[in-house]
């Protein structure tokens, strides 16, 4: 960290004001000379989108947005925009004023997309299901479009997870491939 940045920040995060392990964060685009901010190391992953965004961890932004440092203003504006689904962030955005040049800078780089959370299939008891597991039905189920009735206690072996729906799996009952809701299953040990 250069001396100018250290003095300006007072060895504190320029966003939250905490004395923590600091890092120099470059607010893009990189063509500007006044684009460095001293911030907590713990915030970088959320800023860059490599960690899920935790709205409660950013409650300090309505204070940080009033900084006199344009790079801090830009970073605050970008984070508030990513959090605008939160009422406090939307309120802060409504009253935040940036001069035209700073606003243009803030809009120059798109915010990273939030990492998608992995779809996890769980049985009725909260046990994580995997492809190839065996499960037991916890309820007698009538199979739609068929005269088949899958009885309580039936073991379904070698299940396949439905990739885009965490509440469904596929499995064979009496030789017929059916879709079963996970809330009617118990993972067999």
UniProtKB/TrEMBL annotation:
<dbReference type="InterPro" id="IPR013988">
    <property type="entry name" value="YjdM_C"/>
</dbReference>
<dbReference type="InterPro" id="IPR013991">
    <property type="entry name" value="PhnaA_N_proteobac"/>
</dbReference>
<dbReference type="Pfam" id="PF03831">
    <property type="entry name" value="YjdM"/>
</dbReference>
<protein>
    <submittedName>
        <fullName>PhnA protein</fullName>
    </submittedName>
</protein>
<feature type="domain" description="PhnA protein N-terminal proteobacterial">
    <location>
        <begin position="4"/>
        <end position="48"/>
    </location>
</feature>
């Amino acid at each position: 960290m250069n001396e100018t940045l250290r003095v300006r920040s007072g060895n504190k995060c320029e966003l939250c004001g905490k004395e923590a392990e600091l890092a120099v964060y470059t607010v893009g685009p990189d063509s500007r000379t006044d684009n460095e901010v001293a911030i907590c190391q713990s915030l970088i992953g959320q800023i860059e989108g490599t960690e899920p965004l935790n709205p409660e961890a950013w409650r300090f932004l309505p204070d940080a947005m009033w900084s006199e440092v344009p790079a801090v203003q830009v970073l605050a504006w970008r984070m508030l925009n990513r959090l605008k689904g939160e009422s406090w962030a939307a309120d802060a955005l409504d009253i935040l004023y940036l001069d035209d040049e700073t606003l243009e800078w803030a809009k120059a780089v798109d915010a990273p997309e939030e990492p998608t959370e992995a779809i996890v299939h769980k049985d009725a008891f909260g046990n994580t299901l995997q492809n190839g597991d065996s499960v037991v039905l916890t309820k007698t189920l009538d199979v739609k479009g068929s005269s088949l009735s899958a009885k309580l206690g039936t073991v379904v072996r070698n299940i396949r997870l439905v990739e885009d729906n965490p509440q469904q799996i596929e499995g064979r009952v009496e030789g017929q491939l059916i879709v079963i809701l996970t809330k009617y299953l118990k993972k067999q040990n």
